[in-house]
Amino acid sequence: MVEIYKTHTEALNNPIGIDAMNKISKALSNEIEIYRHCEYQSMIAAAVASQDKHFVIATVPTGSGKTWIQALVAKYFCSLGKKVTVTEPNEQLRLQTADKLIVVDFNIRVFSIDQFY
């Protein structure tokens, strides 16, 4: 897993360290009963948040914890004073994601694609 992180961050000027994301993950784990700290989710979140782009797509298998990866990335940017918008493909996933992310930080907004059209 560390190799994947290194592959996706080695060319970046200022990547977010795995330790920094682990700290956020462990804090969320202590605050939110339904969240468990997971090393691989922290590494993926650190790699995604490190990208020098305004738009990043990360694909991981069903059941791998995508919502919590989103939560870690969002919490990182909220800790920098930024507002975060998460977009889901449909209303059902928007509601499911919003239920989890609202307990992470109130500055995270969740929309479905349908809301933009």
Please characterize this protein's 3D structure.
The chain is mostly helical. The chain has a single domain (2-116), classed as Rossmann fold (3-Layer(aba) Sandwich). The chain contains five helices and two strands; from the N terminus they run ααααβαβ. It has helices at residues 2-9, 18-31, 39-50, 66-79, 91-101, and strands at 84-88, 108-112. The protein has a two-stranded parallel sheet. Helix 2 (18-31) packs across helix 3 and helix 2 (18-31) crosses helix 4 (66-79). The chain is globular. The chain starts with a helix and ends in a 5-residue tail after the last strand. The model has no long low-confidence stretch (mean pLDDT 89).
Which labels suit this protein?
single chain; 117 residues; 5 helices; two-stranded parallel ribbon; 9% strand; 2 strands; globular; Rossmann fold; mainly alpha
Question: What is the typical, i.e. mean, pLDDT?
Answer: 89
N-to-C SSE string, H for helix and E for strand: HHHHEHE
Shape: globular
Estimate the helix proportion, in percent: 40-55%
* Fraction of residues in β-strands: 5-15%
Number of helices: 5
Rg for CA atoms: 14 Å
User: How does CATH name the architecture?
Assistant: 3-Layer(aba) Sandwich
Instruction: Note poorly predicted spans.
Output: none
- By CATH, the topology is Rossmann fold
Task: Specify the structural class.
Answer: mainly alpha
Number of domains: 1
* Counted beta strands: 2
End-to-end separation in angstroms reads 38 Å
CATH superfamily: P-loop containing nucleotide triphosphate hydrolases
What's the arrangement of strands in the largest beta sheet? Answer: 1-2
CATH top level? Alpha Beta
Largest sheet: 2 strands, parallel
